[in-house]
Amino acid sequence: MSEIDAAFAGAREGDPVAFTKWMGRVERPIRLSLRAYARAVDVEGVVQETLLRMWTLAQDPERSLTGENASLRFAIGMARNLARNEARRLGRERLLPPEDMPEIPTPPQPHSDPRLARAIADCLERLAGRPLTALRARMQKQGLLPDREIATSLGMSVNAFLQNIVRARRQLAACLTRLQVPLEEILR
Amino acid sequence: MSDRDRDALMEAALTAYRDRDPEGRLMPPPAWWDLPPDALDDLFEAQLVARDVERRADPAGMSGTVRAVLQRIRGRMAG
Known about the structure:
A: globular, B: mainly alpha, 67% helix, flat
C-alpha cells in the first residue's frame, strides 16, 4: 500500500490528521494537473473544493476506490471536472483547454528535501522589517482570514501589506538563488 | 497596468483565503477577475512556488491551502 493509500485509508476512518497527511501528499499533483485551466478558473478554489469533496467521499462507506494511488487519480479527475463546470458557470469556457487534451502524468508529491527546507528557513530568517512581518502573517493566517483583516491586525493598509509581501518574496527568491537553490528546484 | 499594480493584484489573488457565495461555492478573489490571461499563467506558477515554500517552512508541513481546507472540515465537524 502506498503512503497516499495508507493516509486515505485513515481518512476513511474519519481521522482529520490522516486526511491532512493525505492532502500534503496530493495537493501539489492536483494543482499541477490544473495548469492548463489557469486562465479559465481560479485554480486555488478548485483545488480546495476538490480536497473538501474528497473528505466527503472518504466518509461515505458506500464508495470504494481501488488500485495504487486510486484516491489521487480520482481526485485529479474530479478537479478537472470541477474546473470545466466552474469555467462554464463563470462564462469563461472559451479559455478551457480542449476536451481531448492528453493527460500528463502527475506523480505524487516528492518527499521533503531537508536541504531545501533548511535553505527556505535560513532565507526567511534573513528577511527583516515589514516585509518579514507581512509574509509571516500571510503564511500563518491566510487559510483563516482575508488579507484586509491580517493587514489591519498589523496596522498596515491592504495595499502596503500586499507590497510588503511582494518585496518579501523577491528577497526570498534572491536569497535562495544566492544559496544556489533557485525556485526551479523547489518546483521539481 | 503598471508592474506595481500587477504585482499587487497577483499577490491579492495568490492567498489561500476564499470567500463563499450564498450557495456555499468558493468565489475567486476580486483581484483574480482583474488579471489578464498571461498574468493568470504567472499566478499559477507563483501559487505553486508559494504553497511549496509554505509546506516546507511549516513545522506541521501544511500549506495555506491545506490549512484552509482543514478549517472548513473542522467547521463542519463542529457544526
